[in-house]
Amino acid sequence: AQKVTQAQTEISVVEKEDVTLDCVYETRDTTYYLFWYKQPPSGELVFLIRRNSFDEQNEISGRYSWNFQKSTSSFNFTITASQVVDSAVYFCALSEVLRRDDKIIFGKGTRLHILP
Amino acid sequence: GAVVSQHPSWVICKSGTSVKIECRSLDFQATTMFWYRQFPKQSLMLMATSNEGSKATYEQGVEKDKFLINHASLTLSTLTVTSAHPEDSSFYICSARGVNSGNTIYFGEGSWLTVV
Predict the structure, then answer these.
(1) Whole-number pLDDT of residue A99
(2) Which among B45, B49, B104 is the nearest to A101, CB-wise?
(3) CA of A108: which chain B residue's CA is closest?
(4) pLDDT tens-digit profile of A54-81?
């Protein structure tokens, strides 16, 4: 069975600090996808990244970076120089191979507060 | 890019009535649609997976007679909450994947349901 654990329920940091959101996953599949989504107060899910299990390269997109470590089954997300607009709930998610009937399973989310 | 639209964004209904939420893929054919439910400050829980033209597959614990899902066309899936009760009040969000969406799953904006 697949499972995503986000141990940090809530994090508060002061603006301009760096912050890392942890994500640990479990799966028996060798082929899978990992995702990060941002959910602002309005509710919609904003897609941030999708990474397949064969690509362990770290990725950087502006102030966002992701560290994928298969050895520890982790896919952590770092925001550098945080801004108030980064305040949101962030979800890590897993999909065991995007077959026709496959689905995305979400972690419980980490609520991030960026304080001015 | 691909867009998935949900309607209505907000709905208030009386206890005992039924309410329908629509999920449309606007510029791709959605062969598979997923329905999620999110209680306040909680994660997204998958309710069911629907493939166009066939019956939806419900997750364990989700009442299929209460949450009717129809995926009659490649661009539209509907979720009907029948005989709604206050405990059905929640945020419902759909996602869609299609052949031409590059296996990417796109989420709708979500629908807030309040049963009074």
Answers:
(1) 54
(2) B49
(3) B43
(4) 888 888 999 999 999 999 999 999 999 9
B71 and B52 in contact (C-beta within 8 Å)? yes
Instruction: Enter the tokens of residue A110.
Output: 């980490």
B26-80: pLDDT as tens digits: 988 888 899 999 998 899 999 999 988 888 999 999 999 999 999 888 899 999 9
Sign of CA dihedral B22, B91, A90, A12: positive
What b-and-e string marks burial along A20-54, b requiring 16 or more CB atoms within 10 Å of the CB? ebbbbbebeeeebbbbbbbbeeeebbeebbbbebe
- CA end-to-end span of chain B, whole Å? 37
Number of residues assigned to chain A: 116
Which of B91, B105, B106, B107 to probe by mutation at the A interface, max A CB count within 10 Å?
Answer: B105
For an interface test with B, give the residue of A104, A105, A110, A113 to mutate (most B CBs within 10 A): A104
Which CA distances in Å does B116 have to A111, B6, B32? 28, 22, 32
Using 50, 70 and 90 to split pLDDT, how confident is the model at A6? very high
Round to whole Å and give the CA distance between B1 and B106: 10
Rounded to whole angstroms, the Cα distance separating A36 from A107 reads: 10
Q: What is the pLDDT of residue B110?
A: 93
User: Looking up tokens 């039924």, which residue turns up?
Assistant: B18
